[in-house]
Every structure is written in C-alpha cells, then in structure tokens.
TrEMBL record:
<dbReference type="InterPro" id="IPR050766">
    <property type="entry name" value="Bact_Lucif_Oxidored"/>
</dbReference>
<feature type="domain" description="Luciferase-like">
    <location>
        <begin position="3"/>
        <end position="296"/>
    </location>
</feature>
<protein>
    <recommendedName>
        <fullName>Luciferase-like monooxygenase</fullName>
    </recommendedName>
</protein>
<dbReference type="GO" id="GO:0005829">
    <property type="term" value="C:cytosol"/>
</dbReference>
<comment type="similarity">
    <text>To bacterial alkanal monooxygenase alpha and beta chains.</text>
</comment>
<dbReference type="InterPro" id="IPR011251">
    <property type="entry name" value="Luciferase-like_dom"/>
</dbReference>
<dbReference type="InterPro" id="IPR019949">
    <property type="entry name" value="CmoO-like"/>
</dbReference>
<dbReference type="GO" id="GO:0016705">
    <property type="term" value="F:oxidoreductase activity, acting on paired donors, with incorporation or reduction of molecular oxygen"/>
</dbReference>
<dbReference type="Pfam" id="PF00296">
    <property type="entry name" value="Bac_luciferase"/>
</dbReference>
Length: 331
C-alpha cells in the first residue's frame, strides 16, 4: 500500500506572523501523526518572506518536541549552502533528541542570487559542482564508512535516513549510484518525472542502507467538501507559484474565487502544467487523482504538499485526503 507523508514550507500569510506560521506547522504535523502519515518534512528556503523554514534544523526541533512518533526531516537541505560537517552536527543533534525519527533529504539546487551568496559567504555555483563529493563526505561523517581526520560530535554514529531529492536526471542517477532512497519534486517541476524514476530504478546499486529502490513523489493536494471550495482554497498556492515565476514572491495571499480564469494565457498554461502532479476537488475526486498518479509512477510513497491561507483548511484537506484514500483500501 502506498504510504503518505507531508512536506511543509512553513508558509507565512499576509497579515500573519512568523510565530503563527510555526504554530500552524506544529498543528499540521500533529494531524499528520494522528492520521498515521510516515514522515513530516520541512523545506529549506532563504530570503523569502512568505516561507519560514530557512533555519530548517531549528524548525525540526520545534516539530519534534510537539510530536512523538512521526519521522521528521528535511525536504530538503540544500547542501551547497552548507558544509557537510555543519549538517552532520545539526542532524546528529536532532537524532540524539528524537532517536530513530530523523530523515535528512539533500538537494543540490543552490540559491544563486548574488545577494544570497554574499550573505552565506559561499560561491554557490562552485559549491553545487562538489555536491556528489559532499554527499559522500556527509554520509561518512555519520557512518564512519570512510576514514576522516575529524569526527562530528554530535553526528558520528547517528541513526539517520539519508535521502536524495531532485527534479532532474542528475539527482536520480546519484541516488541510484549511492543506493539512497529518492524523492522527486513533481509538485513544482514535473517535466522529468517519468524519465528520472526510470533512470533511478534501472541504475540502482544496493547499499548498506537500502537493498532495493525506494521512491517518494511530491504532489499538490487540496481536498474539500465541494470542488469549488477546493479550487478556491488552492488559489493561494497558485498565486504563490505565479508570483515566484514572475519574480515577485511574497507572503501567502488570501484565496481568490476563479483565480486561474483571471490569468494571462502563459501563466494559466504554467498552472495547468503543474496540475499534472496535483489533485484538487472533493475527497473522492482527490482519491481518484492520487490513485492514478500513484499507478503512473509506481511510487512507494506520496508526499502531500500545498499551502493554504487558512491553516485549518490544510488540516481539513489532509484529513479528508487520508480518510478517503484509506476508506477505499479498506472497502
């Protein structure tokens, strides 16, 4: 049976505060745990006023303290922004605090803006070229499978599940080479989904951590009691996508009824394109769309994404989605 997990961007809504965003994430994580979801991930973004997950490991500690059993982790840490040693320490600390519950999803995409590079004191383009070596070094810092001159404390010996994240063939091939589970970000970059999953499964080499391929795919999901209500609820996320693609990201905006119909053709086409990895509608419609997507990808796990202006709407959407999918399985 397909597993379900949640990816949270810790959205900050217009008129809202950072504190409210963090507490909304806690409430969502508690709901995911109550519903039996496998894991709850936070994504690293920087210098975006509408996304509050930049200090990812700190946010995860907050989530970990509020939950008991659900796995928590990064979806993902952009490793070029850091050193492997720093991440080994941070996630080694998380493992010590919440043993057996920590995932470390790794991504290559750097924040390439000159201002961010200066703020991080990093040449992010150059750092991304060393990503494969940094992944191997990070794994060695945690497992000791390669002799290093220094040990991360915390970090060394931590029981952490390492994941490769990606939206292209590069991440798929690296995950296969290193024998890592692979998560594909179809929720915002669906173009290479089928090709990447095929490449990963075809080239997978077993490792001590994983003996066969394991895939998770992210998709945007919005469920409500009626289709119009779900479509309106999804419009806040749609506005965020349009704002990002047009170079004007900001805080999450209130929903707009019929929003997509107001857009110019190129922006409407962009949303339609992203819709191939989305499920929006009544619980039964969402269940059918998720089932078709799972059948297409043969994924082991669906990662549910999608920000809503009202945090309660996302909690209710998650409840309706999980209940509908599981009711069908148990029928």
């Amino acid at each position: 049976m397909t597993q379900f997990s949640v990816l949270d961007l810790v959205p900050v809504r217009e008129g809202g505060t950072l504190g409210e965003a963090f507490e909304a994430s806690v409430a969502l994580a508690k709901t995911a745990e109550r519903l039996g979801c496998t894991r709850f991930w936070i994504a690293e973004h920087h210098a975006m006023e509408g996304i509050a997950g930049g200090a990812t490991s700190v946010v995860l500690a907050h989530i970990g303290n509020a939950t008991k059993t659900i796995r928590i982790g990064s979806g993902g840490i952009m490793l070029p922004n850091h050193t492997p040693f720093q991440i080994a320490e941070q996630f080694g600390t998380l493992d010590a605090l919440f043993p057996g519950r920590i995932d470390l999803g790794l991504g290559r995409a750097p924040g390439a803006e000159p201002e961010l590079q200066r703020a991080l004191r990093k040449n992010l383009h150059q750092a991304s070229e060393y990503f494969p070596q940094d992944v191997v070094e990070l794994r060695a810092l945690l497992t000791g499978d390669v002799d290093l001159a220094i040990k991360a404390t915390p970090g060394f010996g931590a029981n952490i599940d390492l994941w490769m994240l990606g939206s292209s063939l590069f991440g798929a091939q690296l995950a296969a080479k290193l024998g890592m589970p692979y998560a594909f970000a179809a929720h915002f970059a669906p173009d290479h989904l089928d090709e990447a999953l095929n490449a990963y499964r075809r080239s997978f080499e077993p490792s001590e951590a994983l003996d066969k391929p394991y895939v998770a795919v992210a998709m945007n999901v919005f469920a409500a009691e009626s289709a119009p209500a779900a479509e309106t609820m999804a419009s806040s996320q749609q506005q965020a996508f349009v704002a990002l693609r047009t170079g004007s990201p900001g805080k999450l905006k209130p929903p707009v009824e019929g929003y997509a119909d107001t857009l110019p053709t190129p922006q409407r086409a962009m949303l339609d394109h992203l819709g191939q990895a989305a499920a929006v509608g009544t619980p039964e419609t969402v269940r059918q769309q998720i089932a078709a997507f799972a059948d297409r990808t043969q994924t082991d796990e669906i990662i549910l994404c999608g920000s809503t202006f009202d945090p309660d709407d996302r909690i209710r959407s998650l409840e309706l989605t999980i209940e509908a999918c599981r009711a069908r399985v148990n029928a």
